[in-house]
Amino acid sequence: MMKDTIYSLFKDVVNKNKTRAAIIENDRILTFGEFSELVDIIADSFPENIKSVGIVMSHRAELIAAIFAVLKCGAMYVPAEPSFPAGRIQYMMNEADVDLILTEKEYTNKLSGFELRLTDCEICGAEPHAVKREAAGSPEAPAYVLYTSGTTGKPKGVCVSNRNVCHYVRAFADEFHPSAGDIMLQYSVCSFDIFVEEVFASLLNGAALAIPAADDKENVRALMRFAEKHSITMLSGFPYLLAELNHLPEIPASLRLLISGGDVLRGAYVDKLLSQAEVYNTYGPSETTVCASYYNCNTGTVLEDGTYPIGKAVSGVKIRILDKDGSEAADGETGEICICGGGVSYGYIGGREEENKAFEKLPDGTVMYRSGDLGYVLPSGDIAFLHRKDTQIMIYGKRVEVMEVESELYRCKGVEQAVVRAFTDESGLSYMTAYIVPVGGDIKMSEIRRELSENLTSFMIPEFMVKMPQIPLNSNGKPDMTKLPVVMKEGAV
């Protein structure tokens, strides 16, 4: 077995920490030694020469063990949440050409047409084999395929190698110094690379992983009770989760590290958390393996628009800001965020030639990923994120960046949370709706419009404003568009 595979790092950790806790649940704790045996049982159940395994399971120790079992066999795993629509799961598993799907009995109705292995009755109750399966795989072998939203309307699968993940495990350790005394919360859905960070950056660095039950995820107070009960020290999530923590009187004293990723982090989201834990803003597309940059908010400052910078490149990564001609943009000048180094993945599976053009081969043979995000370098050397190249809309023939409008809303007095979304009317013309959670539950829209008009031209002020008791979030921790009321607008006659 070659070094720099996920499983080789795992075995090294197991050998050093056999009696230490690896997986923590409300009703059981598995040591690294016990967890490794569960991995072996699942791996021994697989046929020879598997290449791709789907995983559709509830969040518990068996899910994490299934992932390591697939990797032990030198195959890649393709995760899907059981709550995903059946059509989406079928599309993902077909495109990834999975040999079989690991699942549980209650989810089989969504998986017709695939060879299934039931972990709740066929596998995990088995006895360990006398002779364990030999580990296989190489650093260049694909480790997983994560599906993200595609511009074509179909999800696109990002293929990440063992070497990519091992690179990120080291980068995480270099910045955050996890140890055997640390416990990471497993909160993210398996289809986001926050999950990759939770699982591999903890276990492969000798820290434990704590998995809450469904009841523990009902609200942020229940989640923090779980965190306090199990002395969780590290939490990684979307900024909206940190914003909820920010409203609590206090967070568990055990929490030393709060990592925000996946969206813009505003100062208002974490201003009360800074005195209670280390807070980091991170940036990185799935295509570059979890995070490409880190920013320590405790020692930093917010920008004029109220957001935090995304920081500097993680260990083993180089970030370039390139102008329209592909040249290095001068410091302070806006350009596209481009990423080189150990995290750059293989790209998208399924022959997506057009989309794979974002992965540009450089003259030295390395590959650079063009993120499609715009940013600039601050005097400190940190990078400020602006917005995506493709999130502009046209209103009255003029360009409007929706994120800029949202940032201005956060500067208005009396606004606790805000989301701005663009829609089109019956004639296909764009308009914006702002969803606002007021401080103390009361707000005057006329005052909000007046404040916005001090910094935004009239066409940039949202046409409709909706007062909300809270911004609903989906299972991924992002604003749930399906639960935001749509204000319909007639087209021009």
Task: Describe the overall structure.
This protein has 493 residues and is an alpha/beta fold. It folds into two domains: 372 residues, Rossmann fold (3-Layer(aba) Sandwich); 93 residues, GMP Synthetase, Chain A, domain 3, CATH 3.30.300. It contains twelve helices and 26 strands. The strands form seven sheets. Strands 11-12-13-14-15 form a five-stranded mixed β-sheet. Helix 2 crosses helix 3 and helix 6 crosses helix 7. The radius of gyration is 23 Å and the shape is globular. The chain starts with 5 loop residues before the first helix and ends in a 26-residue tail after the last strand.
Summed up:
The protein has 493 residues and is an alpha/beta fold.
Could you name the ranges where pLDDT drops below 50 across 5 or more consecutive residues?
none
- Taking the alpha carbons of the first and last residues, their distance comes to 70 Å
The CATH class label of the largest domain is: Alpha Beta
The whole-angstrom Rg is 23 Å
Counting helices, strands and paired strands, the structural category is: alpha/beta
Quaternary status of these chains? single chain
Tally of individual helices: 12
β-strand number = 26
Q: Helical content, roughly? A: 10-25%
Describe the strand arrangement of the main beta sheet, using strand numbers.
11-12-13-14-15
CATH topology name of the largest domain, in short, is Rossmann fold
CATH superfamily of the largest domain: ANL, N-terminal domain
Q: What kind of sheet is the major sheet?
A: 5 strands, mixed
Strand content: 25-35%
Average pLDDT, rounded to a whole number, is: 91
Coarse morphology: globular
